[in-house]
Design a protein that fits this description.
Layout lengths: L4 H13 L2 E2 H7 L7 H13 L3 E6 L2 E6 L3 H16 L4 H11 L4 H17 L1
Antiparallel strand pairs: 1-3, 2-3
C-alpha cells in the first residue's frame, strides 16, 4: 500500500519528529498550513494503512511511524526498478547516471559506494 504525496509529506514530518501530537505536526508545515480536519483525515488514513499508530494521552494522540523511512524508500526504488527497468538494476543505474546531471565528483562518490558494497560481498 502506498501513501499519497500529501501523506508522504506528513510522513516525512513524522519521521523527522519521531513522535508528535497533531499541534506539533501542524507547526512543522510552512504556510499555508493544512486545516486541522485535513490533517486529522490524513492521520486516520495513514493509521488505517498501517503506516503510523498513536498513544493516547487523555483525549490527545501522540503519533509515531510504524514504517521506517529507509524501508519505505527502498520499496519504492525496488518497485521503480521492477516496473520501469524490467527488473534490471543495470538498466536503472545506466539511466540514473546518464539521465541526471551528476557531476564527476558525484559519480566518483557513487563508484566508491558501489566498490565498498562489492568488497562487503
Amino acid at each position: 500500500m502506498n501513501l499519497s504525496k500529501t501523506e508522504e509529506e506528513l510522513m516525512n514530518h513524522l519521521w523527522r519528529l519521531k513522535k508528535a501530537f497533531m499541534k506539533d505536526l501542524l507547526e512543522a508545515y510552512s504556510d499555508p498550513k493544512p486545516a486541522n480536519t485535513t490533517l486529522a483525515t490524513m492521520l486516520k488514513r495513514m493509521n488505517d494503512k498501517g503506516f503510523i499508530s498513536y498513544t493516547l494521552f487523555g483525549k490527545s494522540r501522540q503519533y509515531y511511524p510504524l514504517v521506517k523511512k529507509k524501508d519505505y524508500f527502498s520499496k519504492h526504488v525496488n518497485g521503480l526498478i521492477k516496473n520501469f527497468f524490467n527488473n534490471s538494476s543495470s538498466q536503472f543505474a545506466s539511466f540514473f547516471t546518464q539521465s541526471t546531471n551528476l557531476t564527476k565528483e558525484e559519480l566518483e562518490d557513487l563508484k566508491s559506494l558501489i566498490d565498498d558494497e562489492i568488497k562487503k560481498k
